[in-house]
Amino acid sequence: MEGISRKIYLELSGPSEEDSRSSQQRILDGLEGMGIEGRMTLRVMGKLYPLCEEAQWKLTVSLAWDGIQWILTDIEPGDTRTAHYGYAVDIGSTTVVARLWNCETGECLWEAGNYSRQIPYGTDILTRIFYCKDDPQKRKELKDAVIDTILDDLKEIEEKTGIGPEQCIQMVTAGNTAMIHFLLDMDAFCVFSTPYAVRADRPGFLPGRELGIPISGFVYCYPGKSNYLGGDILSGLVAVEIHKREEIQVFFDIGTNGELVIGNRDFLICGAGAAGPALEGGSVRTGMRACEGAVDRVKIREGKILCHVIGEKEAKGICGSGIIELIAELFLNGWINILGKFQPEQSDLITEQEGSFRVEYAHGLYFWQEDLDEFIKTKAAASTMVEYMFRESGISLKEVSGFYVAGAFGKHVDKEAAVTIGMYPDMERERLISAGNASLDGAGKLLLDRQVLAEIDEILEKMVYIQFGAVEDFLHMMVAAQAIPHTDLERYPSVKKKLEERKK
Amino acid sequence: MEGISRKIYLELSGPSEEDSRSSQQRILDGLEGMGIEGRMTLRVMGKLYPLCEEAQWKLTVSLAWDGIQWILTDIEPGDTRTAHYGYAVDIGSTTVVARLWNCETGECLWEAGNYSRQIPYGTDILTRIFYCKDDPQKRKELKDAVIDTILDDLKEIEEKTGIGPEQCIQMVTAGNTAMIHFLLDMDAFCVFSTPYAVRADRPGFLPGRELGIPISGFVYCYPGKSNYLGGDILSGLVAVEIHKREEIQVFFDIGTNGELVIGNRDFLICGAGAAGPALEGGSVRTGMRACEGAVDRVKIREGKILCHVIGEKEAKGICGSGIIELIAELFLNGWINILGKFQPEQSDLITEQEGSFRVEYAHGLYFWQEDLDEFIKTKAAASTMVEYMFRESGISLKEVSGFYVAGAFGKHVDKEAAVTIGMYPDMERERLISAGNASLDGAGKLLLDRQVLAEIDEILEKMVYIQFGAVEDFLHMMVAAQAIPHTDLERYPSVKKKLEERKK
Description:
The structure is a homodimer. Chain A is 34% helix and 27% strand.
């Protein structure tokens, strides 16, 4: 397996009366002897002397693939093949996570994540886009904010491993279309405005130093399929390898937006749509991100609500996974009905305030009827994407061998609870798989395997995009999904069974 | 004929519900429709918005060839195909001359030359090399000095034409191996020290901005064949097209060093050697460069020396072309003999001072016996190169259809005088051709014709290098050439005839 960078050790003969080839030619000939054609950068030319002589012509060259050819980006004395490093970076709107890879052994050496320095410009992407719209100076601020966050990660990695960007050849990044627009100093308003034609969707390999990232080679940005199906999804698909399997699989990335891909090695149907901020703790009065003080696990036992709080501290609010468990428990215990309405007679914890019902899930913290309504709308949007795609493709749930849920949601949310509230389809639990940070995994995969570039082209070629918003009966389906788990309980046999058991 | 840059005008349809391709894809598809595959730079991605919309998708893209592929380096609104510019630059050790070309019409718009900002570091290259040897900081000073001289030229051109580097795509440079080493921040000591293996001899296409030259595309450096046969010679060969002809031709570039190529489309034999500073006015007591106040033309009429002075001013010294005419006239009038020794009885202008003879060629300015001796050694070195190469290749002068003399020497020196002193071979005068600044011409040729790249490879492939210093009888031949025109006068029938005529 050959990655997008190589380190080649050469033992060359030095110049003599009989052989007065240039240092450059000597090295290129050495590489050619190994079947590698390369092109030397200005930087390497400047390093040839006195390095080659001092190293007695035993040297290691760094090669970076630029999509077409190998570029000699660095030269070091001696055999440094084992010091062969690269980065994979997931550029999220909230956090930017980087991994340092040993490209020789294929081992991940360290991972560091930092909150995006873009957050002060707006927690959501749209605010950031409006901040810098038609103002190149402000656009540059946002670009610098992404770059600086990446550099924060790299610095942290260097502190832990002693390996800094100067020792790395390539970087692979994956991010949604808007984040990549920010990264490359492009206006991102197009991502959210009709006709959704973005500026650039296949940035390819860009010189790292031109971007402000001091690696010796290139920053590769995963390409996007469309405005809402960005490089993070492509990278995620590469990670879970749907496109390589015979069995049909599903890749679902759900957050403020939802992206869904169904397919196998023969076809890939994809769609994307807005879900709403509720899944990430937004739009819920006491909602918060999954950090210290957030309720992330909820059980109702003997009429009491038992919460787990991140950091084992006093609860300050509730995050996405906590909300889902809370709603599932409220429903299974009959404290809310199938339409998600509070049943105050079922518990003293349900109280009325200013004409609204609410439940006190932790000391002094309430989950309101409005929060419930909002959340159910969001989960309806998400589950309808799945339902709609299945119907359109004529594929039944039974045919699906794996339903991958990407991202923080898939990682932290309890599958059982997610099925109970109708967020995930009701299928065997072992087929519901958390894909983790698939976007980051896919970035690392390309770093270590150049063949992935061909896979990416293949995936882009195969992907058929379905615009959800464009379909009228999508809205009808979504209304039907605004119940727990669904107006049609027959679609959720395991939930139906659970309800029956509880009634006993 | 297609150059190494192109400007393509595209009239594209804007994004719509039905066609939401990215701006990038839209442009690349437009190019593909014209059979061009291209890669977009970060800089162009950043310019897409609002440029494309504002131009209503009628735009012109700049394409720069990088040796392998077309790179989209710029984008402009509207049809700007006629504003298609590039530079050719001859990087000499004394002067750096740049030409601005209109790459659409193939017309040279302006030429500007400036004294190299490296001169303060040493008039000769070796002094400069020793100045910065093993000191990267000083090496950078010398690099910056070359770049700044190029920028001086470009600024002058901009002042005259209104066209600056930002409007130019490519730059082709030609210079000797040492100058190219300076330009690319490489140690150049190797050029003059055994075993004469240089750092890099095929720099190729390097991003202009990386070098500090703000064109949108690349700076191409003509490759060198060896330490003494640099890119300036390759470029000169491309200019005079020896490698394309059936007839045998000679390319001779003479200055402090001499480079010589004999060949045709089937073979190219080349050699190089030191000639000495005398030809450029150095090592002569009153010698100076060909600038204001320099004697550049000399005749002896009725016992008087008549001089022409550059700028029609009072004479301050004598330049190379003046020296050659002076010596030729001294010889033809019998004021010096065949060994170049003054014959004081022939003229009152020849006087003795401190045991040395000298001639007063202009008021208060003297040419000494030592000057003569030094100059004759230099011309012997130069003419022996020619003689030696002819002998080695088994080619006779009669077979040569054109003897090109490149550079300032070829341009300013009177052919007749140069034959008389034995500097040029005695052949029909119309076959002795001044090639002018062939290095600069060749640079412009590549700018306008991409096929030249293949020619360069072909020339490098064909060139057979003969090391003069390595040959023992080269020295014997040189001694025989230390006479005017030569110890064997039979080799110079036209000079012999002239002498006989004068005697009558």
